[in-house]
Amino acid sequence: MNQFSKAAQHERCSFFGNVTLGSSVSLSELRELYHVVVLAYGAESDRALGIPGEYLSGIHSAREFVWWYNGHPDGKNLSPDLKSTDTAVILGQGNVALDVARILLQSTSVLATTDIASHALEALEQSSIRKVYLVGRRGPAQAACTAKELREILGIKDLYIHINEVDLHKSPEDEEVLKNNRIHRRVYELLSKAATSAPSHPSSNQHELHFVFFRKPDRFLDSGEGSGRVAGVHFEKTMLKAVGPGKQIAVGTGSYEDLDCGLVLKSIGYKSVSVDGLPFDHEKGVVPNIKGRVLAETSGDPTQLEKGLYVCGWLKRGPTGIIATNLYCAEETVASISEDVHQGEIASASTLPKPGRQGLLQLLDNRDVRAVPFSAWEKIDSEERRLGNVRSKPREKLTTYENLLKIATE
């Protein structure tokens, strides 16, 4: 956060919070105001499974759940039912899936010392969830999480962990994956250690974490009581099929099994959304680009560029990678901008001036958009820290736009 604050406080940086691209200001208007526009708004929608029962009550996306417990204003009213079942199924085994499982299984006395939203903590204190199943289509050698996040959930005190040892058997293709990928190798080693060191059965009242591999959801099961609530997941067992050097995909075996549960959290990937005036590949969920330079068409013609328009992050390459991946991605885009400036592809401010900051402020003011500068964000930060100090936690999140704007404009 200190690095972000340092950048935001730079005299050449202007921060405009509470501004929505597409409604507060259009992309075409931004391009008229600035010589260079970089789109880095990520992926805030969810991939759908497209299977029967997906919209039963009790099924949520992991993104919604993360917003809920992190205090995002758009997630405050999610109200997941944590009382009516003792079993939750999480579809996916990436870092987000692990974090969601950690929140469900961690002691609330530990969570109370974090910056978790108070409404989430109160709900978790009344939770009946005792068993969490993390389900993935492929095997432990392909698990999409990183060692740091896996180590954190495996380290939860008094947690029973179950992994079928047969799932840990490695094929020659798995051996190749683990040999060439340090992240996957460390994750596999942690899972293997957890499997061999766990007791054969949980003790009474012990929370349970089950890693389930080689399963893909086929449909969601209705409770059958007319309530429209989820009662379980119908899974097809899978196996890995080699489709090229070092690449395996999960394919169905035609064998099925059911897993009863009352809560399902889908952590199967995020999806970027487009805005008016932006070339967008809806199939891949990314902006077509070459090294961050936005292409005018999705066909990939490198000669047809949207001059002055760039992209980075998940919007550029899809929702994959860690913070370091985004760093390299941003560096590539910045290098493209720098190269285009030096080669005269972008008109310099001295020859073709554009309104920039002042023009944007005027446009937002004309539309009665309450833009929040960084100094106002610092007020919000300070108030959250003050409220957190009262409760002996890092911060107490302000979870409504009304309260956020009230503090920002005081």
The chain-level structural class is alpha/beta
Round the Cα radius of gyration to an integer and report it. 24 Å
Net shape: globular
Q: What is the number of helical segments per DSSP (H or I, 4+ residues)?
A: 14
Show unreliable segments. none
Family: Belongs to the ferredoxin--NADP reductase type 1 family.
Binding site for NADP(+): 93-96, 137-138, 149, 321
Binding site for FAD: 21, 314, 321-323
Subcellular location: Mitochondrion
Explain how this protein is built.
The structure is a single chain. The protein has 410 residues and is an alpha/beta fold. The chain has two domains: 2-43 and 280-366, NAD(P)-binding Rossmann-like Domain (Rossmann fold, 3-Layer(aba) Sandwich); 45-270, FAD/NAD(P)-binding domain (3-Layer(bba) Sandwich), CATH 3.50.50.60. The protein is 34% helix and 20% strand. The chain is built from 14 helices and 15 strands. The strands form four sheets. The chain has a six-stranded parallel beta sheet. Strands 1-15-14-13 form a four-stranded mixed beta sheet. Strands 8-9-10 form a three-stranded antiparallel beta sheet, with no helix packed on it. A hairpin with a 7-residue loop joins strand 8 and strand 9 (230-244). Helix 3 (62-70) crosses helix 4 (95-105), helix 8 packs across helix 9 and helix 13 (374-390) crosses helix 14 (401-409). The longest helix is centred in the last third of the chain and has 20 residues, at 323-342. The chain is globular, with a radius of gyration of 24 Å. The mean pLDDT is 93. It is found in: Mitochondrion. FAD binds at residues 21, 314, 321-323.
